[in-house]
Amino acid sequence: MKIAQCKQLGVVALLMSGASGQVLAADLFPTLPDDKTIGIQVKIQSFSPADAEHIKAEGLGFVRFGVWTNSLGGAAYQKQVSDAFATAKAAGLPVLLTVRSTKALPTGNNGELATAGAHFAKSVMELEQAYRTQLVAIEIWNEPDLGKYWPTGNFDTTFVPFMSAVCKSLQAQPQATPLVGFGFARAPTAGSASTVALSRIVREYPKCLSAISYHPYGMSGAQISSAQAFIQQNFHLPGVISEWGVSALASNGGTAGQASKIRTFITDVKKLGIPLTSIYEWKNTATGDNDREKNFGLLTSDGQSKPAKMAVRSQLNP
What is the extent of the structural domain holding 13? Predict the structure, then answer.
């Protein structure tokens, strides 16, 4: 059976099981056991063997990290990427790989955007060929609905031409690794720009994606449940959470409040049967732009455990 056919049958099985309330990760992400569907984000520049071993010990099932295609030409960056994969492999941790570019995209016409999209797809395929045995999935892009992460800064007019070219290329050469997209900062809703874009891309390239990924920061379990239903009903694909976290700010109850919210979140996504969830993040980011951005970690930036780490363990590896 062709890879594309297997992929489509897997998605159909997931949707059918989801309708009965039994969503199984194995239907969509064969490398993940059904009790290892929650992972954690790490940064490749600081991801150490000790981190990987501790992540595994907490009961987390995979790591998520990003690769920027426009940096892959540099030998030092290539080594950073290969070292991160080697570190994950040594600990037996699969990888959810998020791929995007930070290079400005052309905005002059759709032809230029299509060429750029085809070039980006080629990089995705090369990464898949290099690391396929370790991949849970490849996520195409990260928060394109925010100007900060969409290089043209004009999502409404440039996203569909670019991403349609990406999907056209990827669909023409089906990959063994599931593809998810597009890491939206906000869950798609009726009439939102992401919904408009997705409706067209999924309609024109129905074999491109295996799931729709989004980041439900600040959403309750009930709101996430509604988002999952909206995605399945409108795009006939399952929803997955490729990033969610809570900062240990005083306004969130400090480190104790962070731990409590993480515990509730994990309980919610387990009940909802979401086939893939990645928590942000393993360690605090000391170089974050502000206090909020600096304090999402389960550990401090120098590796000291926070209550959030124990909250994760209590839920995933009691």
Answer: 3-316
